């Protein structure tokens, strides 16, 4: 993936990692198109970043998705990068007698089906371009989960596996498939406390490292992963899974 001169679409880009990526790529001279469900935030971000385009999108709304596809074809036919970033996280207490699958259903619909619907809508467009990239935001928790976020972690493990298959199926087509696997970052993914949690990595620091990895093509096997997260990535292979799991999920 080139660091500049792309026309890119980023879903879930009105906050957190999505917004920070959009602004970082915009600053590098890319045509950035952002989507989100809140029009006020889209207006705020595009006003602060002249030249950036914003479209309201609920990935589960067929009419909005079809409308966006038509507008992209008309206004941005050179689209060559899609970043499926929209995602949510929900804690779940599976032991509670009142637990139900509502939160899990919401996570699966957004994190899994949202990514698949984004791919279905835009892969046919970017496959026509000579330097195309499809990226999805996974998580380092795909490899060693936080047990209090079971469906969230499982959804990211699904994306990891699905991206491996997508990468293989596209091996004869010039579309690079990347997996962005963030650590615990200061965003509001799990609530307002996370954005100020000193244990979390500052968002600006994380995005700066990601941009460096992309610029220098330092993402073996298509995985954009910080050095500090490689222990979790290879925990099963290295026989350290149980140790790491219990450190992350104490009794």
From TrEMBL:
GO cellular component: membrane
Domain of life: Bacteria
GO MF annotations, alphabetized: oxidoreductase activity
Family designation: Belongs to the short-chain dehydrogenases/reductases (SDR) family.
Provenance organism: Erwinia typographi
Domain Ketoreductase: 6-184
Protein name in UniProt: DltE
Matches recorded under SMART domains: PKS_KR
Keyword Calcium: no
Keywords: Oxidoreductase
Pfam families (UniProt xref): adh_short (PF00106)
